[in-house]
Amino acid sequence: MRGVAVLCAAGAGWVMVAGVPRGRSLRLPRADFRAIAASVFVFAGSMVVLGALLGVPAAVAAISVIVAALHIKVSEKRNRRNAATHRDRWPDVLMHVRSSVAAGATLGDALVDAFEAVEGQFSTMADVLRSEVAFGGGFGAAVARIRSMEADPTADRILVALAAASRTGGSRVGEMIAVLARSVGDELRLRKAHDAAMTEQRLTIDVALFAPWALLALSIATNSQARAAFETLDGSVVIAIGFMATVVGWILATRISRLGRQLRVFR
């Protein structure tokens, strides 16, 4: 039965790390391959270290999987933070575009110059835009390709508006870009305020999910009676039940955190 408990914990942990089957009713963010590969090494290292410290198979398996899942969670947070930093630079891009258009440049050339001026990930977009305009399907095809690369609601909104401005042209393009820049800036500031307000709630959820397992590891490592209790069949069952509860909490917390995310309207 102890082996069954370990297998249940490992299976539930796989759900945490790799995600559940994706349907219309439940969609979880999928970590990239490098994060999953790194989490496998974290899991293996945790099994070795915790096996030496704890010596309770069910607890070692459950806590190791949680540590690996926590590594992916940290990686996803870092990716979201980098994406937010990249997103915050779109108003600068739009202001560069407005200045170039006011100086007489075409919208395509102005956007290329803006991407190169802001640099970072925008340099890659400049190369895509330049090659598509010169050898591909024109500005509209270039914008569609960049939108596919970005897969971001803010980028969708901006690039769709610029594509429409490119098709219509006229003397009011500069004014439209200025209005778009102000609107995007206001939206980004509002989203920052919302994320800051949600930080405490997210921290509370993380503590509620992971703190009990840290306490369990500390208790087993420092208390021989606790170790003996969790080495029994009943102890393994308790660990398995607790692990399942953590998995359910993880899924619900992930679903709740997605409620505040902006959805892509233009695809």
- Structural class by secondary-structure content: mainly alpha
Low-confidence stretches: 1-10, 12-31
Portion of residues within helices: over 70%
How large is the radius of gyration?
A: 25 Å
Mean pLDDT: 80
Largest sheet: none
Distance between the termini: 50 Å
Sketch the topology as an H/E string, one letter per element. Answer: HHHHHHHHHHH
Strand residue content: under 5%
Shape: elongated
How many domains, as an integer? 2
Counting H and I runs of at least 4 residues, what is the number of helices?
11
Q: What kind of oligomer do you see?
A: single chain
Number of separate strands: 0
Question: Can you characterise this structure?
Answer:
It contains 11 helices and no strands. By secondary structure, it is mainly alpha-helical. The protein folds into 2 domains: 2-86 and 197-258, no CATH class; 87-190. The protein starts with a helix and ends in a 9-residue tail after the last helix.
